[in-house]
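Supplementary Methods, section 5.1.

A reviewer requested that the exact input to the structure prediction be made available. We therefore reproduce it here, unchanged from the version used in the analyses.
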Amino acid sequence: MSPRRADPELADRRRDTLVRAGYAEILEKGIQAVTLDSVVARADSSKGGALYYFPTKEDLLFGVLKWLLQQVSRSLDEVTQTQDSPRARLGAELEVLFHSAQVNRKLYLVFFDYLTLGTRLERFRVLLSGFLAGCRERDRAIIEEGIRLHQFRKVPAEDAAATLRALVDGYCLQWLLGPENVPIETYRDLCRSVLGAYLLR
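The structure derived from this sequence is encoded token-by-token as follows.
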């Protein structure tokens, strides 16, 4: 039986349950091994209800990615849209981006799984590139403000924003694939040091 459209809040909750179950399945098994049936079982849903929201596995994967990127963007917006100084806001952003070993391992395991889809399927590429563009725009605005306030050197703000994103993702990748005894905070501090040498007056 298809979910009723008369209760949008209930429909949203059912969809959200499926998305979260999909995320858990991807995290546990990887994208290739996930099936609609396994997500339905984890969500304690019905196959018909799941197909109403996500007619194909690709639709479900897209919904999970969209949800995940929204969560990350919301967290970054919270720390970068404060009244703190640009330098403090970038520092707070790094704390979010290098949150903890547990959180970052989950995020990047799923994120890197999705990069393959992003190189092969257009709507995934558009969603991922849009997220990265939003990150660069957020950082560009902070860096421009920091330059105006003489907290940062006069550097091309767009280039600096792209550099920040490259440092974060690069260091997180090195941490993910590096020795297990090296904590993520080591890479966070490396990122902060390199970024500071580039931006600070």
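The longest helix spans residues 122-148. These observations are discussed further in the main text.
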